[in-house]
Amino acid sequence: MVRFSELLDRLTGERLATVDTVLAAPAPLQPIDLTDDPQVAEVLDLAVRIGEVLLAAGTSAMDTAEQVQFIAATYGLARTDVDVTYNAIRLSAHRGPTLPPASTLRMVHYRSMDFTRLAAVDRLTRRIRREMVTPREAHEALTALTTAPHPYNRWIATLAWSSMAAMISVMLGGGVLVASVAFLTTTVIDRVNRVLNRIGLPFFFQQVMGGIIAAAPAATLYTFQDQLGVDIRPSQIIAAGVIVLLSGLSLVGSVQDAITGAPVTAAARFFEVVMMTGGIIAGVGISLKVTSLFGSTLPPTNVEITALAPMPVLVPAAAFASLSYALACYAERRALPAAWLGGAFGALVFALAAQTNIGPVVGSALAATVVGFAGGLMARRAFTPPLIVAVAGITPLLPGLSIYRGLYGLLDDEVVVGLSSLLAAFGIGCALAAGVTLGEWLARKVRRPRILRRTDTLRRPVVIRRPVRVRRRRPGPGGRMQNVPGPSGPGTP
């Protein structure tokens, strides 16, 4: 117990990730000459480039705006207006009544779940906050981290995606055969989509291709299971592939934007999630229709309904699925234990909630709240943005099985079953994102580092008042006056 408490203290210590709470600088650390247009432009470009990395990684619009505003204020541009939308960051700085405002615009043309880059930007922001980093030095550091290669080979990320699919199939009650098929299917999906991405195919069609590949092996194996002498449930394989395809979408960011007051960005992100999910559904539907032309059949939806794995299997499988997702997104080593614990906590709460019959939506919300809260605390020790732990922790709980049931119900002329399953998937997804947002907010309010509680942002000089020793004079030998040490401290006359 002592060693466990020490490990927990290391993970939940009083260190705050920069994105957790960005406070206004009390005074510019590196004040620039506001009349010097090149210097002002350099600071504005630095701020929006940092915001670009954050927005591309799925950070909410409000958190991105606060980071951009803080960077500008650190260099003396305290009065700024920041507008963050789905794919653009606009920054305008007021330089005084006699100078025209300076502004810049940065378009975000990509989405990248690169957790190493996100953590590196977090550390750079920390350096700018606490050290005397000039804008030129900050620019060089930012360029170095954005152009740096991934920390490990691309094949490791492919194997991590495949391991994640295998663990999710185990969570859904699958055995060794189902996990192996899910592993190989996801490997093919990742490598094919990587080739399609290299030739510039839009991401929607990549999702369609992923859905086709996810469903074809499951339907084929089920058709020939008697000849092969195996017992297989296609839903476990297809749902694992659907969850892997859903995991890269910014569902958490879209709901966070809607909750925190950025409706335009929330609507754009949510529409993207809906479109990409539609691509997955279309791909699965195409695959099932094509395989049916060759005589492949799938079991009815009611036969496919299975219980989740028992808790001793569910919790470790979810933990390793979260770890695999963090590894697939190039997370640093220090973030992997936090992601593992986040997945374990979420699955444990979800399993306990399922035993109380409160429903999957409420259970998902409770589990996501625990994940967001634990992630906000653990990310401080790991010097990792809480977004990494939160997204990795809720990924195994995504409603891939409900999406498959809804799709197959619609294809099998079971409209009521299909629509109810798709609505359940929609409710679970929103509950997961809202729970993570609430958990992160609680983590920010419950525990803050002592230095921030004392000084708001920066370590300030501490004046130590030493006791003053008072010397008294009294007659000495021969009538001469001499100094005699007297009492000191409060109350000394």
UniProtKB/TrEMBL annotation:
Main location group: membrane
Keywords: Cell membrane, Membrane, Transmembrane, Transmembrane helix
Pfam families found in the cross-reference section: ThrE (PF06738), ThrE_2 (PF12821)
Domain of life: Bacteria
GO molecular function: transmembrane transporter activity
UniProt-annotated location(s): Cell membrane
Residue stretches making up the Threonine/Serine exporter ThrE domain: 317-439
Topology class, membrane: Multi-pass membrane protein
GO cellular component term of the entry, any: plasma membrane
InterPro entries registered for this protein in UniProt: ThrE-like_N, ThrE_2, ThrE_Dicarb/AminoAcid_Exp
BP terms from Gene Ontology: succinate transport
Domain spans labelled Threonine/serine exporter-like N-terminal: 45-290
Matches recorded under PANTHER family: SUCCINATE TRANSPORTER SUBUNIT YJJP-RELATED, UPF0442 PROTEIN YJJB-RELATED
Family that this chain belongs to: Belongs to the ThrE exporter (TC 2.A.79) family.
Protein name, entry field: Uncharacterized membrane protein YjjP, DUF1212 family
Organism: Rhodococcus triatomae
Lineage of the organism: Bacteria, Bacillati, Actinomycetota, Actinomycetes, Mycobacteriales
